Amino acid sequence: MLKLLVAVALLAVVAADSCLHCICLHESGCKPLGCHMDVGSLSCGYYQIKLPYYEDCGQPGKKSGESTETAWKRCAAEYSCSTTCVQNYFKRYERDCAGKGFGTCEQMSRIHNGGPSGCSYASTAGYWAAIHKCCGCK
User: Fold this and answer.
1) Separation CA 49–CA 90 (nearest Å)
2) pLDDT of residue 16
3) Which residue in 38, 56, 96, 106 is the catalytic one?
4) Which of 14, 65, 97, 121 could link 107 by a cystine bridge, Cβ 3.0 to 4.6 Å?
5) Among this protein's residues, is 27 annotated catalytic?
């Protein structure tokens, strides 16, 4: 029984990693792109993170005395930091997808693309379709 639980937990981690990798590929080719205008504001880095998203994810990697804007741009350009930000953002808002019958990757994708209520927006379905095509995950 313990082996089964460990196997299930390992599969969940692999699926989450695959999902994150596909989001990264979709957003930037998984490269540390600079900042670019997107829907009226700057999006930066591996996951094309916007400043309010960075603030909502808890501002990982922010150094003492560093401005939030500087920390955001630096974090977005660092794979580990930006991945932590995406994971934190999802943990913060995943409850907003509860009861919708979506798998974890779909929730993560739609929240990443559409914000805290992304699971409720039909406009995020196309984004999810692109991520699903990459990873085949739920």
Assistant:
1) 13
2) 62
3) 38
4) 97
5) yes
